[in-house]
Description:
By secondary structure, the protein is mostly helical. The chain is 67% helix and 6% strand.
Amino acid sequence: xxxxxITNVCLLAGKIMLQSGAETYRVxxxxxxxxxxxxxxxxxxxxxxxxxxxxxxxxxxxxxxxIVERSTDLHKVTQVxxxxxxxxxxxxxLDDASQQLQNIESQVxxxxxxxxxIAACLASGCFTIMFQGQWIDFFxxxxxxxxxxxxxxxxxxxxxxxxxxEFLASFLIGLVAFLFIYTGIGAELDKIIIGSVMPLxxxxxxxxxxxxxxxxxLVSGLSKGxxxxxxxxxxxxxxxxxxxxx
Length: 246
C-alpha cells in the first residue's frame, strides 16, 4: 500500500469531519480505523478544534492539517462515516476512498442558506410559543429570528472577528423585537427575544464539548466549552445593549 495515499485519505477524512462539526474523539477514531483497514496497525492521531496530527507509526513522520473554518454539516459527517465503514468492510479501494472523500469535501452545504433562514424563522416562532409566549408573538419572533440569523450568516462571511457576528445578530433581534412591541405588534418582548435568539445558540458546540470531556479529550472539550461560552456571552451582550438603550 502507498503510505502517502493512506495518510492523505486519513487526514482528508478527519479534516472533513472536524470542519463539519464532529467530535474530536470521533475524528481520531475514524482516522485510526481507516488506517487499520489498510494494514497500518500502529497509526497515531491527535485532533483539536484547530488542527489534526497523524502519523503512520511511532517512529514515522508526523503530518499536520490546519483547520481554519468550522461549520455544522452533519450530512458530511454521516457520509464520511459511511465511507469509513465501507473501507473497514473491504468494499472500496484506497483510490476509490480518496475520490469519494474528495467528492464529499467539494459538496456545498446540504441545506442552502435560504432554507436555513426559513428554518430559523420557524424555529424562532415555535420556541417563543414553547417558552409560554402568546400566539401574537409568533410573527414578531418569526421575523426577528430570520433577520438575526441572516445577519449572522452574512457577517461570518465578511468579518473575521470571532463572536462579532453573534453579537450584532442578537443586537438586531433585540431591536426588531422592540420595534414590533413599540408598534403594537406582539405582547411580550422577553419571550420574542428569547425565542428569536435560540437559532444562534451553539447547541452542537456545547454537546460536543461535553462529549469530548467525557471521552477524556480535555483540551478539545475545554476549548469548545470556552468557545460556546463566549458565543453565548456575545449573544447576551447584544441583547443587553438594546435593553440599555431603550
